[in-house]
Amino acid sequence: MPETDLDLLIRAAHEAGRIATRYSGREAQRWDKPDGAGPVTEADLAVNAMLEQMLPTARPGYGWLSEETEDSGARLDRDRVFIVDPIDGTRSFADGSRTWAHALAVAERGVVTAAVIYLPMRDLLFSAAAGGGAFLNGDPIQVSAPADLAQAHILAARPNLLPEHWIGRTPPVFQRDYRPSLAYRLALVAQGRFDGMLTLRPSWEWDIAAGDLILREAGGLCTDRFGAPLRFNNARPRLAGVIAGGNTVHGGLAAALDPAGLGIASH
């Protein structure tokens, strides 16, 4: 039986974990990218090299978009594309934390159809294929359903609560938590451990693509900050923020956000 896209991503994620965990986060060589784009380590590059060889070899007709590969634009002519973050949460990896992840996805005509988020240091593998549900280590997962936004635990960086983002310059009341990896935040919401996730800054597709499908297959909603469905493989691969959660949480956050709010939150 031919290997499905999801099976391929799972196999690739395990190999990525084997490579990344050979490096000690604090001792791995680290560089800062130009223009304040953040750090990159030798582990990011080693994982990316493996994925860029393995995945397109298995699917030669697919395009390629990765944080650690210079984007040529050739992917725009392909119906299907791999969207990859070799290590999401590089700062956490470099600090010796365990909350970094490999985020791998396939998008078809702008919609994610297969996705994996793998945290090798925590032995957590989140996965989904379109129409097949969402899973953590093979067990089904589902978003939570708090009675209202005030009871919700939302993963969001503090700058997202700045007044300029919200109608009446008043953020809604909810309990705020934070995790450094965007992919992991989305996976935690899909798992039901947290009730929602919010980021208002422009977000790279490779940080979001895998979590978008996993969360939607877990019964949640995942949109940009204006409530529009997320579309991937754009010429400029950035999204206008992300709101994610079950119906009540997503609706409460979307209704409270000022559609004209132009403040740029970090994280």
TrEMBL record:
Annotated InterPro entries: Inositol_monophosphatase-like, Inositol_monophosphatase_CS
Top-level taxon in the UniProt lineage: Bacteria
Claim: Transport is one of the keywords in the record: no
Keywords, sorted A to Z: Magnesium, Metal-binding
SUPFAM superfamilies registered for this protein in UniProt: Carbohydrate phosphatase (SSF56655)
Matching Pfam families: Inositol_P
Family: Belongs to the inositol monophosphatase superfamily.
Name this polypeptide is given: 3'(2'),5'-bisphosphate nucleotidase CysQ
Species of origin: Ruegeria marisflavi
